[in-house]
Amino acid sequence: MKDRINVPGPARVMYRTYLAVLALVLYTGFDTFHPFLSGWRYPWSMSLAGVFNFYLCWILVLVAFVYLYYAILGRPKGWNEPLGIFRIFIGLLTIWFFLLTFAAYRPNGWLNGLVHVLGGPVGTFKLYELFLWVMLLVNVIYIYARWVKSERFPRLTSAGRTKKVV
C-alpha cells in the first residue's frame, strides 16, 4: 500500500500564504511593466502598485525564510513530502527574487553593486521582468508536479484481461 503524503499544518499554511502573496506580487509586478492593466489615466495607481509590490516581496521572502528553516532544521517527525527538495529550491529562488526586487526598486540602496553588475537600473528592471515569468513558471510546474504526486491524480490504467467463460 502506498504511504500517505503527510505535510504538517504549518507548512501547508505557509505554502498557501506564499502562493497568495506570490499571486499579488506577480500581478503588481506585471502591472509595473504593462500599464494597460490599471489604465493610463491613473498614474497614482501605478505608484501604489509599485509600493504594494515592494512590501509584498518582503512578506514573500519572510515566508520563504520560515519555510526553509522549517524544511531544513525544524523538520517534524512524519513529514514525508515527496517534493521537499523542489520546494527548498523555490524558497532559495524566492530569496534571489527578493534581492532582485529590492535592487530594482531601490537602485541606490545597499544593493547598488548588484545593480551595476546587472547593467544599471534598466538591466535590473529587464531581469526583474524576466524573473517575474520565471517565478510564475516554476511555481506552476511545482503545483502540477505536486498534483501528479498526490493520490487525487487520475492515473491511466489499462483494461485487465478478461477470461472468456464458455
Helix and strand arrangement:
Blueprint: H1 9-33, H2 43-72, H3 84-105, H4 112-117, H5 120-149
Helix pairs in contact: 1-2, 1-5, 2-3, 3-5
Question: What can you see in these coordinates?
Answer:
The protein has about 170 residues and is mostly helical. The protein has a single domain, classed as Transmembrane di-heme cytochromes, Chain C (Fumarate Reductase Cytochrome B subunit, Up-down Bundle). It has five helices and no strands. α1 runs antiparallel to α2, α2 (about 45-70) packs antiparallel against α3 and α3 runs antiparallel to α5 (about 120-150). It is elongated and about 80 Å long. It starts with 8 loop residues before the first helix and ends in a 17-residue tail after the last helix. The mean pLDDT is about 80.
